[in-house]
Specification:
Length: 106
């Protein structure tokens, strides 16, 4: 069984078209392009449902600030504040520990 590998959008389109040209022979396409059967099967299903754009990998994409709604902007600001608070708490705890060690050494 071939392990899956990272592919580009163009490669996925090529693989799907190859598979469809060979009467949905997923195994043959997987072997030909050295990807897993599951990847080919999933890409063909996505392609049939949404065309070439459905094969784009949108994971990890962040929206530009102009694209965010007011609620999303507020949620993002709240997350930033929570992160900053946690960082300050950790810094404060570290300083307290440091003071305690310095006091013990005297």
């Amino acid at each position: 069984m071939t392990k899956g590998r990272a592919t580009t959008w163009q490669e996925r389109i090529e693989i799907v078209l190859y598979c469809l040209a060979h009467h949905k022979d997923y195994g043959k396409a997987a072997k030909q392009f050295q990807v897993s059967y599951q990847q080919v099967y999933g890409w063909v299903r996505k392609y049939e449902a949404g065309g070439e754009e459905a094969l784009r990998d949108g994971r990890g994409r962040t929206k530009a600030p102009e694209e965010l709604t007011m609620e999303e902007q507020q949620r993002l600001a709240m997350k930033r504040l929570e992160y900053e608070n946690e960082r300050l708490r950790a810094e404060n705890a570290l300083l307290k520990k440091l003071q305690e060690f310095e006091r013990r050494d005297r």
